[in-house]
Amino acid sequence: MLRGAARALAERADVVTAIARTTSHLDRLREDAAPRRVETVALDWADSARLREAVVGAAGTRGPFDLAVAWLHSSAREAAPVLAAALAVSSPACRLFLVVGSRDDAEQPVKRAWHERLSAAAGLVYRRVRLGRRDGPPRRWLTDDEISRGVLDAVLGDLEDALVGDSW
């Protein structure tokens, strides 16, 4: 769902590292972004040790990250803090844009603690991109292209708390 944003970011960077669970999505991204360099890592976000190793390893190979965009499944509860910690250690001054779904309620104690941990991570600038819906007839979920455009706008505008869509 973020392939369009990743492709656009690849046009602005020397290299983009993409992590996803399925190799088919990563293969399509690499093909779409060609001739730009896109490195890919297939892993389950819930595998904290592997996620940490992949991020630190990629930073060691290609240099520190200055930007990370992540849309994580809620089932991978520790993925965001693990990602933030790995980025903070390996890539000082990295901006992390965390994409959250329309059901992410930052006022729930668990979610509030999660966002506070990310905001407090040393050496990391935390940003949030909230996905809403499109209002008006018919009310609907956002398309992949709308999500990618909204995330890219948030990144390029360095927005601290962006809303993609008309409502939350």
Describe the structure.
This protein is of the alpha/beta class. It has a single domain (3-164), classed as 3-Layer(aba) Sandwich (Rossmann fold), CATH 3.40.50. The chain has helices at residues 3-10, 23-33, 48-62, 79-90, 109-120, 144-156; strands at residues 15-20, 37-42, 67-71, 94-100, 124-131, 133-134, 140-141, 161-164. The strands form three sheets. Strands 3-4-5-8 form a four-stranded parallel β-sheet. α1 packs parallel to α2.
Strand content: 15-25%
- Note the gap between the termini: 19 Å
pLDDT < 50 runs, ≥5 residues: none
Describe the main β-sheet briefly.
4 strands, parallel
SS summary, helix count = 6
- Give, in order, the helices and strands: HEHEHEHEHEEEHE
CATH architecture: 3-Layer(aba) Sandwich
- Content-based structural category: alpha/beta
Give the helix proportion (percent range): 40-55%
Structurally, the number of domains stands at 1
- Total E-strand runs: 8
